[in-house]
Design goal:
heterotrimer, A mainly alpha (about 750), B alpha/beta (about 325), C mainly beta (about 500), A: about 750 residues, mainly alpha, two-stranded antiparallel ribbon, 34 helices, 9 strands, globular, B: about 325 residues, alpha/beta, 5-stranded mixed β-sheet, 11 helices, elongated, STT3-PglB_core (chain A)
């Protein structure tokens, strides 16, 4: 029997659903396996920075019970402030892995929480494929759904945040995003409160999992609003939206970190406004259906407008008066793109908050990026309610992705959906086996001639569909696209394996003989800290490494990647950027026992602290403008130098000293090379008086310094050191000279 | 150290003070008069300059050395000038006779010699001369004044005010005159727009309801964003740059940056590719004449292939290690 | 439905069997209880005693050859060796054998007199009593830990290290000794300090030094002594790490299904060598990397595993330690580990290593097919000299194994039996945990033999359980799928 018959026939429905199931499982398999590069190359290890905190939190959750996790006050970070961790995180991720852990334990599988955390993201990417399938199925049909699932399964844009080991909120958030959207569409189509409630439920899960839930909070209202504007208000819309909003909002307020935001902050006001609007519209609709008179209707219409204007005015008033919090900086910087750079340097300093250049789009989406507009166009052809959603989502997401690299993540799913729609449309046409019969066509044409047609700009889809005559052209098109798809797969694999599969904790390098050599300095140093320093030792480092120290070294840190206290970070920045005599009191006041710096000079590892130093200076300057001055770290010619030409301020800064201390003894005299900056260092290395080198990792990437105790004789360390090195006679003089800045510890 | 120094200097100064008190007084008179007449900023000449900065000073003087004339092409100067005037004016407004803080300005055109004397070859330069006598005298800056660092601060008047209040007891407040014109324009524009909309609603209606228009708009938006337009907008990248050897570079080197034209090229390529896909899916199957259809299919395929391969080659330029390509563009 | 009942029954039975298996067995019988005021009867005489102490490792190994004569009227079969209470605690092992004669190993017992008794005893029981007036040549081998300590306690990173041994002039004896001397064997002859006793009767200095051996004595006609005369101490150069394992846990897991023997060891390790006077300097360390001089830091640990060891791993709390090498072939299985950082004096490290074996090389099946005998190495430590403070060996047998018996090569202090649940076990696997303390590397590679009974049915439990579980799952999901959630049509 013909393929078409096979696809339509009722008798083969089970067979088809089985086939679908198999295909979906295969896709999930592909999605998971393509995320395992790092596990295979290195080991099952948590990646990068934030995941280490999530991992630590998960461990805490499975070691203690849920409620102690809920009100967990963590006194081992942000010393001496501590952090109310339980109330300032999105627990969704940890709770998810916690539940999985307990289930497996119940089945007596001796599985380590670490492996669960590592494998969570790939596992959920499989589910994401499923959710995308369902979503796209609502848009077009199964074929498109399967295509979309395949795309999202291997699209680098999504893989970038979900490889094995990148145990971050996004890992589960994208699945929740797509699934919530699917449920919303479903609820909208059926006008069913049940689906609306389900949607609210998953919305709640999303809120618990990721700060990006705000995207949903604004997408759905926007969709509803546009539908109303298009005059597509219907009971279905009303039921779906109201059930979602009422339940969803109440549920979301159960998360401590969210709390009353849904009614107090501007991000959430759109949803509230649309909710109100829908009530009015519904009411008016009802009245109109009852009352025939014309002018009364126009009255009602104006009533809507007035009500709308009034409510929005009230909103503005409340915002201004401060009852409603204005947009948070992170969110605001999406609209006013210059905002962060001036006001919140910490946000600006994060690389993933930079705008996206076009290669990044192509890198992450390859051919999908040009199938995307085609798909959106086709949504316009059959403009049902759900297609409106895809269109809005497409436009908004591509704007956000353009502003912030990391938001490529929210763009990827809709691109996959749209591209799948486009591609499946093409394939539908060209895989249709039977030839059109000229006679029928002629008849159709004749019929068509009757009603005259005007030509528009984009009137591609006018006239009746004839079909494709030549098998040759079918073959060419199908062949070509199959080839492009192959290319796409190759591209994705290549990108994943080259760009997104390095755990940044362990570095890989190639030996001359081509074999892989693993550079494990981070863990070497962290483990040294863990084993050979007192459990309550305080470690100071730049905030990037806070989470890793907490996770791997299990020691108290001053600042970490949850950058909630700018001043505290600035304090660390100041300590790093000032001269010893200034820094030492700061260190003492914060009970710092060890200071940790990252130094890439020996290996040519560019992500080190000297390269991040400028940000420390800027953030410190933001708080102490007249104690730390960025200007003074640049030479008169405005260069940022570390060699002989470096400014005095630079050479005397603690960071510089700690980075290059003893470094030149590694080289023949005067030959010291910094392989990152690619410069020759001063012949005489810096001297440290108030700190002593405690540990340096094999390749010098991590250097740990111990903060000296106060001098027994009450001298400042400089003169003490001078004394030690036998400069007795000059001691008195030195004493006087330094008298002015003798260290006083308050 | 510092303390002793200041004490010494004070001792040294006292006789001068007694002598120069009268002189100082009428200096204040004079400058405040000028300030009044010129509504804030005191325009300096070489002589006036040396007078205002010359010690003894029992007042604080902010002196701006600038080059306003367009032929010097000093953007910053011209950007900065109104702000400076605004600051001066608002100070004037609040403190009738200046209370010992003067805002002065020396334009290069008028004070070339001073520029030469100070050996300056950059402008603008904003200097703050604290008093040499009186309770808030600052002996460290008798001759070498504090300099405002343009590279570090933003230029609006507020930041200068902050800077001054950091270094002096004065707390200048900036009062920006509310700009009514903008408001009026805004309102009237809105009103006009509304009326036009109202009047021409019937003619606009089809446009508003036209699917083609909306789809065109949204497609264009999408193409803009996905081709990195926001990046251009935020980073203010040049449209094109000249490659080292006199020619023009359309493609920026490196994965992380791009030129304006480059993104437009990419956008166009995307558009063509998308259009190929659309017409293959929608136009072609509606062509009744077999041969015509066959031709179109082949044409669109060819176009698609070319554009895609061009895109790939473009990407290879940005990302050296990229291994994939399509014919014909290597 | 019947299947459930069936499985339930099976479960119950197996539970019973295991309970019986898990019944606690009697305390290991290596102790002998005697009244507090016990003093050994004076029935023996040591006619000649040669005591040689080997200090080439960071603990002392004494070999005492003594000719014992029965001076009482009746047969004697128990010879007591006294120790001061604190010395007693340091003894790692104490073996006795008939040196010349055919009697071989003798049974040695700790004599327990209760706490705070200043003198403690080991008793050697001759396998056949000694006739009056007859002689026997006993050979006692004793290992003591914590008898050396680095002096000075802090050195520079590249300095030599010196250890100081402190002991007694004579071998402590409960009987009169006619003639004895003490030999000390040192790793080298760089000995800056040693105790000089007053010259002997013949005027020769005491001790006499030949190469790297010191000799105290000979001494004539000693009365019984516990203290062992003068305290003697020697300081000698020993620039090697003092590897000290605070705790070692060793799991031996037998799986009949996988035909696999999995071994996993966890080490809590400290280096007891002299601490660093200043902080660690990477520059100096890097410099020594080229010509590697003797150092007190633990750089590598090498294991000679049993041939056929497979897929080893080397990890710690924060993941895999990449610096390990494994060479395996038909002749050897050589595992070389490098800690993440060199362990200097006072530094700690924790790591886990594990590997697999083919079970058939270690398990013998009795003809009945239901009785098994397992023969595995009791300890497999690194080649380097090691002192274990506490050792836990856990043998985990398959689910449903009963009446477990074992024989250990070294005296066990504590033994407990429990059930270990993993991989969808319903009742858990029978497991035995053996605890002992103060062990030295001499005890490596001795065999532990475990025999147990396992009915054939037991091996079928797991697949059956899985099957029932899955089928129930399907049934439930089917029922759920049939539920109609619509409120109204």
């Amino acid at each position: 029997m013909s393929l078409d018959a096979f696809l339509k026939d009722e008798s083969t429905r089970n067979l088809r659903s089985l086939l679908k199931a198999v295909i979906l499982i295969t896709i999930a398999g592909a999605a998971v396996s393509s995320r395992l590069f790092s596990v295979i190359r290195f080991e099952s290890i948590i990646h990068e920075f934030d995941p280490w905190f999530n991992f630590r939190a998960s461990k805490y959750l499975v070691q203690n019970d849920f409620y102690s996790f809920w009100d967990w006050f963590d006194d081992r970070t942000w010393y001496p402030l501590g952090r109310v961790t339980g109330g300032t995180l999105y627990p969704g991720l940890m709770v998810t892995s916690g539940i999985i852990y307990h289930i497996l334990r119940f089945l007596t599988f001796p599985v380590d929480i670490r492996n669960i955390c590592v494998m969570l993201a790939p596992a959920f990417s499989g589910l994401t494929a499923l959710a995308t399938y369902l979503f796209t199925k609502e848009m077009k049909d199964d074929a498109a759904g399967l295509l979309a699932a395949a795309f999202i399964g291997i699209a680098p844009g999504y893989i970038s945040r979900s490889v094995a080991g990148s145990y971050d909120n996004e890992a589960i958030a994208i699945f929740l995003l797509m699934f919530t959207f699917y449920l919303w569409i479903k609820a909208l189509k059926l006008g069913s409160a049940f689906w609306g409630a389900l949607c609210a439920l998953f919305y709640f899960y999303m809120v618990a999992a990721w700060g990006g839930y705000v995207f949903i909070t604004n997408m759905i209202p926007l969709h509803a609003f546009v539908l109303v504007l298009m005059g597509r208000f219907s009971a279905r819309l009303y039921v779906a939206y109201c059930s979602w909003y009422a339940l969803g909002t109440l549920a979301s307020m159960q998360i401590p970190f969210v709390g009353f935001l849904p009614i107090r902050s501007s991000e959430h006001m759109a949803a509230l406004g649309v909710f109100g609007l829908l009530q009015i519209v519904a009411f008016v609709d009802y009245v109109r259906s009852q009352v025939p008179s014309k002018q009364f209707q126009s009255l009602l219409r104006s009533f809507i407008v007035v009500a709308f204007i009034l409510s929005s005015a009230a909103l503005v008033l409340l915002t201004v008066s401060g009852t409603i919090a204005p947009w948070s900086g992170r969110f605001y910087s999406l609209w006013d793109t210059g905002y962060a750079k001036i006001h919140i340097p910490i946000i600006a300093s994060v690389s993933e908050h930079q705008p996206t250049a076009w290669p990044a789009f192509f890198f992450d989406l390859e051919m999908l990026i040009w199938l995307f507009p085609a798909g959106v166009y086709m949504c316009f052809r059959t403009l049902a309610d759900e297609h409106v959603f895809v269109i809005i989502y497409g436009i908004m997401a591509s704007y956000f992705a353009g502003v912030m690299v990391r938001l490529m993540l929210t763009l990827t799913p809709v691109v996959c959906v749209a591209a799948a729609i486009a591609l499946s449309n093409i394939l539908d046409v060209y895989t249709n086996l039977e030839k059109p019969d000229p006679a029928v066509v002629a008849a159709a044409k004749a019929a068509e001639e009757k009603e005259e047609k005007k030509s528009g700009l984009l009137n591609a889809a006018r006239g009746t569909v004839v079909g494709i005559y030549a098998t040759g052209s079918k073959l060419t098109v199908v062949g070509a696209f199959t080839f492009y798809l192959f290319l796409f797969v190759l591209h994705c694999t290549w990108v994943t394996s080259n760009a997104y599969s390095s755990p940044s904790v362990v570095l890989a390098s190639r030996l001359p003989d081509g074999s892989q050599h693993i550079i494990d300095d981070y863990r070497e140093a962290y483990y040294w800290l863990r084993k050979n320093t007192p459990y309550d030792a305080k470690i100071m480092s730049w905030w990037d490494y806070g989470y890793q120290i907490g996770g791997m070294a299990d020691r108290t840190t001053l600042v970490d990647n949850n950058t909630w206290n700018n001043t505290h970070i600035a304090t660390v920045g100041k300590a790093m950027a000032s001269r010893e005599e200034v820094s030492y009191p700061i260190l003492r006041k914060h009970d710092v026992d060890y200071v940790l710096v990252i130094f890439g000079g020996l290996l040519g590892y560019s992500g080190d602290d000297i390269n991040k130093f400028l940000w420390m200076i800027r953030i410190a300057e933001g708080v102490w403008p007249d104690e730390v001055k960025e200007r003074e770290f640049f030479t008169s010619r405005g260069e940022y130098r570390v060699d002989d030409g470096a400014t005095e301020t630079m050479k005397n800064s603690l960071m510089y000293k700690m980075s290059y201390y003893n470094y030149n003894t590694l080289f023949p005299a005067g030959q010291a090379q910094d392989r990152v900056r690619g410069v020759k260092l001063p012949a005489v290395g810096p001297t440290l008086n108030t700190l002593e080198e405690a540990f340096t990792s094999e390749n010098w990437i991590v250097r740990i310094y111990k903060v000296k105790d106060l001098d027994n004789l009450g001298r400042d360390h400089a003169s003490a050191a001078a004394f030690e090195s036998g400069k007795k006679k000059r001691k008195s003089k030195a004493g006087k000279a330094k008298g002015a800045r003798k260290l006083r510890i308050v | 150290m510092r303390l002793i120094g200041s004490v010494l200097s004070l001792l040294a100064l006292t006789p001068i003070v007694s002598a120069a008190a009268s002189a100082a007084v009428d200096k204040i008179e004079k400058f405040s008069n000028i300030a009044k007449s010129k509504s804030g900023v005191i325009p300096l000449t070489n002589s006036l300059y040396s007078e205002i900065v010359g010690s003894p000073r029992n007042y604080t003087a902010a002196v701006l050395l600038t080059a306003l004339d367009t032929k010097f092409g000093c953007h910053l100067c011209r950007e900065f000038h109104p702000e400076y005037e605004l600051l001066a004016k608002s100070w004037q407004a609040q403190h009738k006779n200046n209370d010992g803080l003067f805002f002065a300005m020396l334009d290069f055109a008028k004070g070339r010699d001073t520029f030469v004397k100070l050996g300056l070859n950059t402008a603008p330069i904003l200097m703050l001369f604290p008093p040499t006598v009186g309770e808030n005298a600052d002996p460290l800056h008798i001759t070498d004044p504090l300099k405002f660092d343009f590279s570090q601060h933003q230029i609006p008047a507020e930041s200068i005010a902050r800077w001054i209040s950091q270094h002096t007891p004065y707390e200048p407040k900036v009062v920006r005159p509310f700009d009514y014109t903008n408001l009026v324009i805004g309102i009237s524009a809105a009103a006009a727009a509304l009326t036009i909309l109202k009047l021409s609603f019937n003619t606009l209606k089809p446009a508003l309801y036209s699917r083609n228009l909306w789809s065109a708009v949204s497609l264009i938006l999408i193409l803009l964003f996905t081709s990195g337009h926001m990046y251009n907008h935020i980073r203010r990248v040049p449209y094109v740059a000249n490659n080292g050897k006199g020619g023009i570079a359309y493609i920026a080197g490196g994965f992380q940056n791009q030129f304006g034209l480059e993104t437009q090229i990419v956008a166009v390529v995307y558009a063509i590719l998308a259009f190929c896909a659309i017409s293959l899916a929608m136009k072609v199957p509606r062509i009744a004449d077999p041969t015509k259809q066959k031709v179109t299919v082949i044409v669109w395929n060819a176009v698609l292939l070319c554009c895609f391969s061009f895109l790939l080659s473009l990407f290879r330029q940005k990302n050296g290690g990229y291994p994939f390509f399509l014919p014909p563009f290597w | 439905m019947r299947s459930f009942i069936a499985s339930g029954a099976l479960l119950l039975t197996s539970l019973l069997t295991v309970v019986s298996a898990a019944a606690p067995s009697s305390e290991p019988t290596t102790k002998r209880f005697l009244p507090r005021d016990f003093t050994p009867p004076n029935v023996f005489k040591n006619t000649n005693l040669l005591r040689s102490i080997d200090l080439t490792k960071p603990y002392s190994r004494e070999t005492v050859a003594v000719i014992v004569e029965n001076i009482s009227e009746e047969k004697q079969d128990e010879y007591f060796v006294p120790f001061q209470a604190d010395e007693f605690g340091k003894v790692s092992y104490f073996d006795a054998r008939d040196k010349k004669g055919p009697l071989g190993e003798f049974e040695v017992n700790e004599v327990v007199l209760g706490e705070d008794v200043p003198t403690q005893y080991y008793s050697v029981r001759f396998s056949e009593p000694l006739e009056p007036g007859k002689q026997i040549t006993l050979q006692l081998s004793i290992a003591k830990t914590n008898v050396v300590r680095p002096v000075p306690a802090e050195i520079e990173q590249t300095d030599k290290q010196f250890l100081q041994w402190t002991g007694s002039q004579y071998f402590p004896s409960a009987y009169t000794t006619e003639k004895q001397k003490t030999k000390l064997k040192l790793p080298n002859n760089d000995t800056p300090e040693f105790t000089k006793l007053e010259p002997k009767s013949d005027g020769t200095s005491d001790p006499t030094k030949v190469g790297s051996t010191f000799t105290y004595g000979p001494y004539e006609a000693m009365e019984p002594t516990v203290g062992g005369g003068e305290t003697v101490s020697i300081r000698y150069e020993y620039t090697h790490p003092l590897v000290h394992v605070d705790k070692l846990t060793r799991d031996v897991e037998v799986s009949h299904w996988g035909g696999n023997l999995a071994i996993e060891e966890k080490y809590w390790m400290t280096n007891h060598a002299a601490k660093l006077k200043n902080q660690f300097s990477r520059v100096k360390w890097a410099a020594t990397a080229y010509y590697n001089p003797p150092t007190t830091a633990i750089k590598t640990l090498t294991y000679d595993l049993k041939v056929g060891a497979m897929d080893p791993y080397f990890t710690d709390e924060i993941g895999n330690i990449s610096t390990s090498r494994f060479r395996s072939n038909t002749r050897e299985a050589h595992l070389e580990l490098k800690p993440r950082y060199p362990l200097f004096g006072g530094w700690n490290h924790f790591y886990t290593i594990g590997w697999n074996h083919d079970l058939h090389e270690f398990l013998r099946v009795k003809p009945s097919g239901e009785d098994f005998v397992l023969k595995v190495p009791f300890l497999e430590g690194p080649k380097e000299p090691v002192v274990y403070e506490q050792v836990e060996v856990r043998v985990i047998l398959p689910e449903g194994a009963t009446d477990v018996k074992y024989s250990a090569p070294v005296p066990i202090e504590k033994e407990e039996r429990f059930l270990h649940k993993t991989f969808m076990d319903t009742v858990g696997r029978t497991a035995v945990k053996l605890t002992l303390s103060n062990v030295v590397d001499e005890q490596h590679h001795k065999e532990l033999i475990v025999s147990y009974h396992m009915p054939k049915t037991a091996i079928l439990r797991k697949p059956f359980v899985i099957f029932t579980a899955l089928s129930t799952l399907f049934v439930i999901s089917w029922i759920v799928s049939k539920i109609d959630t619509r409120i109204g049509k």
